[in-house]
Amino acid sequence: MNDIVVSDAGPLIALGTSGLLPQLETLFRFIYIPPAVEHEVLCDLSRPGAPEIKEALLTGFIKRKKTNDKQALKALTKLLGPGEAEALALAGELGVDIIINGKKGRRVAKSRGITPRGTGAIFIKMKQKGVINSVAPVLEILRSNGYRISPQLCQEILALCGEDSSPT
User: Fold this and answer.
1) Domain assignment of residue 161, yes or no
2) Which residues on neighbouring strands pair with residue 5, listed in sequence order?
3) Residue 104 in contact with residue 86, Cβ under 8 Å?
4) What span, in angstroms and rounded, lies between the C-alpha atoms of 66 and 124?
5) CATH at residue 23
6) Is residue 98 part of a domain?
7) Does 134 map to a domain?
8) How many domains is the chain partitioned into structurally?
9) Which of 41, 63, 154, 157 could join 120 in a cystine, given CB atoms 3.0 to 4.6 angstroms apart?
10) Cα 3 to chain center, whole Å?
11) Sites in the chain below the pLDDT cut of 70
């Protein structure tokens, strides 16, 4: 993984909700987010993850950055929502990976030569680096806070981490 990435809203919300947003500093020097993503994650500070994301912006770990690639942004806006479109345009402009969960956004990223990383991949990397001991409790925190993650994806993540992926 690169030391700088761009992130879409969903992964930031998941990491903020799970309490792992500060630990991202063990994987990345900092994270860029475009204005539409900032608006999406901070439009309601009572939502899970929002206070943690606001704090990361205040400390400078998450940095606001607007894309200058208007042509890419225009094309991406026809395919994706505002946050995903701005984030992908920015990642392409900077030549860095993107943290993004949506299937369509990941597919578009790959088609543009941008490496997409999902929240699950971040959790796996955190476990590999010893930042967290287990992924299962993190996934449970997300589910209990209403974060949508398929049971199949949970099982895949747990299996890749060497954790019991049998249903409980």
Assistant:
1) no
2) 31
3) no
4) 29
5) 3.40.50.1010
6) yes
7) no
8) 1
9) 157
10) 14
11) 1-2, 165-168
